[in-house]
Amino acid sequence: MTPPRDRPAKPYGFRPRPRTQPPGPAAREGRDHVVLYGWHPVSQALANAGRHFHRLLATENALARLKEAGIELPIEPEMVRPSAIDRLLGPDAVHQGLYAEAEPLAAPALDAMPDDALLLALDQITDPHNVGAIVRTAAAFGVTAIVTTARHSPNATGVLAKSASGGLEHVPLVIVRNLAEALITLGERGFTRIGLDSDAGTTLDAVGPRRPAVLVLGAEGKGLRQRTTECCDLLVRIDATGAIRSLNVSNAAAITLYALTRSAGTAA
């Protein structure tokens, strides 16, 4: 009789689970349930004490990487093969061996914003890739929060979270019912409301450091709505000098935030 082989040591955080296939994430995700996948979104969420998890799936390599990074796991992980996560997300999702289901982060109130805040306001930007890229840029430039509406905006889950690359854990989303009313409230508090408009008469270079301030971005193609425009103190444009004058909204956000934060740093 062939002697039994030694069983390999269980990897970091491994816990066997029944081989059952739960419903896909699309059936559960929404404003009350979020799906996160990929190294940066999941690892940043795991490091955020404000995140509450329902489930964590990880490959053996991903678990080893989490251990090497010194990331504590707030929930017992399920070790799976990459194909198990592929079945949940689809073959084109770049999950890097990590998939999580969690509670959404608490949305702060508009009146809780500090007096020196730098905010972004999104006027019906619905593409989750664009919104996610804006969140990532906002995290890079120290934006205090992003103001968005309950309707006509993507949920902070899935593709948006992946595009944000962990930025959702650092830049809270302030959810409002009406963007114009929110801008009016911010104006009454002394916020300079700066709308980005390719047809504006004022260039971005002419805008000096402003705090508190809110940068208002409109959807690609449509731009800012008329009511939103009326609630802005300044309308500015990015002076593009090349053959293509229009920019993706997430790129425009990055350029504008760089200009505003550089000006503020220079002035200091």
From TrEMBL:
It comes from the Bacteria. One of its GO terms (cellular component) is cytosol. Residues 35-108 form the RNA 2-O ribose methyltransferase substrate binding domain. The keyword Transferase applies. SMART domains: SpoU_sub_bind. It holds the Pfam family SpoU_methylase. Residues 1-29 are annotated as: Disordered. Keywords: Methyltransferase, Transferase. One of its GO terms (molecular function) is RNA binding. InterPro entries: Alpha/beta_knot_MTases, Ribosomal_eL30-like_sf, rRNA_MeTrfase_TrmH, SpoU_MeTrfase, SpoU_subst-bd, tRNA_m1G_MTases_N. The keyword Translocase does not apply. Its EC number is 2.1.1.34. One of its GO terms (biological process) is methylation. It is an enzyme of class 2 (transferase). NCBIfam families: rRNA_methyl_3. This is rRNA methylase. The gene is rrm.
